[in-house]
Amino acid sequence: MKDLGITNTLKIIYDLLPLHAEEGGEAFSVNVRDSLSKVGSDNTETSTALSLVEQLFISLGLLDETLLEHGVWRFKSFPASLMARSVLSSLADKNQSLFSKGFWGAQSDLSDSSEGQRKVLDYLEGHRQKHHQASAKPIRYVHVAWGLICVDGKFLLHHREDKNRTNESNYVLVGGKVSQNDLMVADNALNANDAIKQLQSPDASSSLKCIQVGLDREMSEETGLEQETHYGYSHWRTLKPYTNVGGVGAVRAITEYHIHVYHIELNQDGMLALSKKIQEDEKLVWFTAEELINAKSQDGKMAYIPALIEDFETAKDWGAAISDFPPSYDTSVNNLSDSYSVTIPLDSKDDVHIGKTGKEKPLSCDLTKEEHKLLLSLSLYAKDPDVRAKSESIHLLNSSWVEIEDEELNAVARELTIKLRKAEAPLIDGYKERYYRLALPADYVYFQNDAFTYRVEDSPEKKTQLIVARETISTDLVESSSIAYTKEIAGALKVGLNELMNGKEVSGDTQKDLDTFKKNVQRLSSLNQTIGLRGLIRSVDSNFQLLKMRNKTN
Fold it and tell me: Is the domain of 480 the same as that of 392?
């Protein structure tokens, strides 16, 4: 028997490959194993080489399967024969390479070589997954620790590493991949080799300690928060293994993901620190519950969370889990009743009023112009989370908290807090003599009538509409944009409102007519409350009064 060596064996196999006509479709068949035996090349090395080449050709889908069962090779087409000769020529020629010398070296993201690596691997692994008869075996394992942070009904996501790729699902929950260093921190008996071996298998997820080490590291890197100092956590869900072609940059492979999700519980310092971090880091964004459920925000940001969504039996179950997810921070303010509802004037010369609607009384203390400005600013932010900061001396944080850096303004805030408490109106929460917020729910915050306008007009459908608007309100510190509601009116409400607008009393033949008008007015309460208006119409004695505000009806 001849010992030809692997290179010569491959060359012989190449010469024995069956022919296929470029035109006409004529194809020939060859029993390559018998042919090798005839030239005296049937030793173990030759047999192994032939088996490997045959398996390679089968994987590439080049050979006719019906003849292959009998050990006979025939190419499916002329291009298939070219593919086989190209691959085998490369294997048999030591001077041949399919890629440049440095192609597979480590590359920076988005370099030409990195993109080339990604395309090659994406093609190979994508087709390996697509064309496997059952389920292609993963060649990459990733163990993930995610932290689910929910504040004010919104969920925090972080832009993935492929930040320059557009039109892709590039946002994930805070957290990320566990590293070999995380395994070694969790178990100091592990060396780097053993840690990598575990990490590149399903085994790493068996140690929740290493998952939690990874979570703490990723939380620190992505949010700047430190465990215990800023947050704690509890295990929420371990997902069933999720397999897909995944990876960032040049890394693309059929990957089996082992994902562990934790509920992050922020303390006061953590919530405030996170709020500031989000303002500084554009990679951190909030998704509403509905946006997270749909894995897409209204402005087009897409969340890469298929593993999480598919872990639930139905889309309804997934939606319910997010809708009912417990908050990461208790945003509730002091347990003040609606008897502390406050009406803030736009002019510092006017009184602040406190009390239930219809029973308001002037605040029994005088505010300075600076104190009034700050109280109005805090009230605007409590009512409208989208207010815009106009001064560098403050930072608008989550849950209506405002950080005040200016010492003079801080002194004003402290004095205002004390003054209100002495007047038995604890309207301001303070923290560390630096952070302040209005200590009232948004529904208890109102503004003086001169901040509002109303008009009555016909819609294009010829239906009468009442439009009530709160104009833009601005201080030296913040600005709140205008907001309005539109309500279609008819019947008793339309007639009565028209009478009041013309300086008349609301007419009615019976008390029942007046009661009907009153009920219609009460239905406007929730709409008025939304924009911070105590009411458009009030009961006065035995009739009604239209409150003083600008009428912009043409």
Answer: no
Dihedral sign for Cα atoms in the order 515, 521, 524, 528: negative
The two most distant CA atoms of the chain are separated, in Å, by 120
For 5-36, the pLDDT digits (tens) are 788 889 999 999 999 999 988 999 999 988 88
The helix (H) or strand (E) run that includes residue 246 is strand 242-246
CA-wise closest residue to 237 among 361, 326, 148, 338: 148
Q: How many Cβ atoms from other residues are within 10 Å of residue 472's Cβ?
A: 11
CA distances to 64, 370, 500 from 475, in Å:
79, 10, 33
Question: What percent of the chain lies above the pLDDT cut of 70?
Answer: 95
Question: Rounded to the nearest 5°, which phi and psi values hold at 81?
Answer: -65, -35
How many CB atoms neighbour CB 394 within 10 A? 22
Domain that holds residue 523: 450-551
Q: Are residues 433 and 375 located together in one domain of the fold?
A: yes
Q: Which residue reads 């003040």 in tokens?
A: 336
Are 168 and 300 found together in one domain? yes
**Phi, psi torsion values for 245, nearest 5 degrees:** -75, 115
Number of domains in the chain: 4
Percent helix, strand and coil across the chain, each rounded to 5? 40, 25, 40
This prediction has a pTM of 0.82
Query: What is the spatial distance between Cα 486 and Cα 126, in angstroms, rounded to a whole number?
Result: 53
- What phi and psi, each to the nearest 5 degrees, are found at residue 70? -105, 15
- The phi, psi pair for 452, rounded to 5°, reads -120, 155
Structure tokens given for 532: 């911070």
Does residue 224 contact residue 195 with C-beta atoms inside 8 Å? no
Residues 362-417 have pLDDT tens digits of 998 899 999 999 999 999 999 999 999 999 999 999 999 999 999 999 999 999 99
Of 18-27, 57-66, 161-170, 383-392, the one with minimum mean pLDDT is 161-170
Q: What is the C-alpha separation between 453 and 515, in angstroms, rounded?
A: 26
| Same domain as 298, residue 182 | yes
Task: Give the residue from 92, 108, 127 where a domain finishes.
Answer: 92
Three-class SS string for 12-46? Answer: HHHHHCCCECCCCCCECCECHHHHHHHCCCCCHHH
Type of residue numbered 267: N
Show the tokens assigned to 216. 């703490």
Same domain, residue pair 297 and 383: no
What does the mean pLDDT of the chain come to? 91
- Is residue 511 a part of any domain in this protein? yes
**Domain C-terminal end among 300, 323, 346:** 323
Q: Length of the chain in residues, anyone?
A: 554
Phi, psi of 319 (to 5 degrees): -60, -40
